[in-house]
Amino acid sequence: MRIGVLTSGGDAPGMNACVRAVIRSAVSKGHEVVGILRGYQGLLEEDFFRQAEGEPLMKLRSVSHILQLGGTVLGTSRSELFRSEKGVKRAADMLRKHRIDALIPIGGDGTFHGAVELARHWDGRIVGCPGTIDNDLLGTDYTIGFATAVHTAVEAVDKLRDTAESHERLFLVEVMGRHSGCIALWTALAGGAEVVAMPETHTDVPATVEHLIKLKARGKKSIMVVVAEGDELGGAVILNEKLRLAGCPFDTRVVLLGHLQRGGAPVPDDRILATRLGDFAVRSLDEGADGAMAGAVSGELVLTPFEETFAEHKAVPQSFLDVLRTMAN
Ligand code: F6P
């Protein structure tokens, strides 16, 4: 079998570990692997990985020492052209032209939407791996890159706590997550934040200010408010304004972590998840799977149809919110 592999959408730490796993697993089973550069856009432009000697197939050694690297050695993109019917048809033509039998796209919901469209014009098989820091896909407990993004955000919160405590300030720390509060909630819990604001919950500004006044009266010197960029109020800058206008008792500062969270070496959990899922995707293709994402649920490796991975909003655990509130009191 000739397998194409690509990374698409926002990069995520651990994508390289997943690419490595796909190649090592596929080559060891006697398959050929074509590395497609720059996601679906690279496929449209026939931009493929080549060895120094011009050899187009990826070998075991093509992926030496990339396990520990952040970013993606294949490159990535959010392709406008691929979103059109014309683009998808052209992508299908490219896969046929290069005699690719199966595709492993590594990415998030946009990548899997693309896979569903592609399957309407191409009869090869597709099994994807969830690579996104957002952890917003159903069919897996965690997505590749989420653990590292949270680790990075928690390190930042820890550092900000030092200066917040010295100056008796409140910091609003904005983390990524356009539609999901997972990064925010995990960061808030691990960073000991007093408040979290995210798309899944309503942020009651007057009630929050009341809570802050009580905390200050109790001698609390510093406050961490973790805000998901997709919070319904519009992010940390706006929430800061609203808190100030509502009488926030602390001097405030805003820090936007932004793309910092997407970089850096993947933490061990991401490397292990990526390795298991990359290998599982290849084994699943071998067994005839198609149209599904490889995921890990309660430790078990499972396949979930692409459409189901993004059909509904992945809920954040209520128990995490409850314990955060208990801790913050
Ligand atoms: O989907 C991953 C993600 O990092 C989101 O959390 C964020 O909103 C978005 O990508 C940022 O995208 P871009 O890199 O295109 O600015």
**Average pLDDT level:** 97
CATH class category name of the largest domain? Alpha Beta
Q: Summarize the main sheet.
A: 6 strands, mixed
Rg, Å, rounded: 22 Å
Structural class: alpha/beta
Q: Architecture of the largest domain, according to CATH? A: 3-Layer(aba) Sandwich
From N to C, what is the helix and strand string? EHEHHEHEHEHEHEHEHEEHH
Number of H/I helices: 11
The small molecules bound here are:
6-O-phosphono-beta-D-fructofuranose
Count of individual domains? 2
What does this protein structure show overall?
The chain is α/β, with parallel strands linked by helices and 329 residues long. The protein has eleven helices and ten strands. The protein has two domains: 188 residues, Rossmann fold, CATH 3.40.50; 117 residues, Phosphofructokinase domain (Rossmann fold). A six-stranded mixed beta sheet has the order 2-1-3-4-9-10, sandwiched between helices. A four-stranded parallel beta sheet has the order 6-7-5-8, with helices on both faces. A hairpin with a 2-residue loop joins strand 9 and strand 10. Helix 3 crosses helix 4. The longest helix is centred in the middle third of the chain and has 22 residues. The mean pLDDT is 97. Bound molecules: 6-O-phosphono-beta-D-fructofuranose. 6-O-phosphono-beta-D-fructofuranose binds next to loops.
